[in-house]
Specification:
Layout (H helix, E strand, L loop, with lengths): L12 H22 L2 H11 L3 E2 H8 L3 H13 L3 E6 L2 E6 L2 H15 L1
Antiparallel strand pairs: 1-3, 2-3
Helix pairs in contact: 2-5
Amino acid sequence: MSETVVEPQTPDPIAVSGQMLENAEKTTQYLKSLAHPTRLIILCRLAEGGASVGQLESVLQAPQAAVSKQLARLREDGLVDCRRKGRSIVYSLADDSTRRIIRALYEEFCV
């Protein structure tokens, strides 16, 4: 009986580079979302736990309109979620990936 040797398949370099390009574009957009001082402070504050617009206004010492504008951008980019709690809206980091990245930035730069 002869044994059939199955050689491992190497990924198609074109497919790999296509996936790498797609991931690089997503990463670039993600980093652009972080590359704004107000948004970065919001994200660092949300790494500590959920917060309302009013709480974020106090931290940032910025008007409600400016905070809301940046929160809208962060929601659009998928970095924060919100939920209604009574009469206010509480914002939080959107997912585990965002939490890990912001936690690393928080530990390095925010404390």
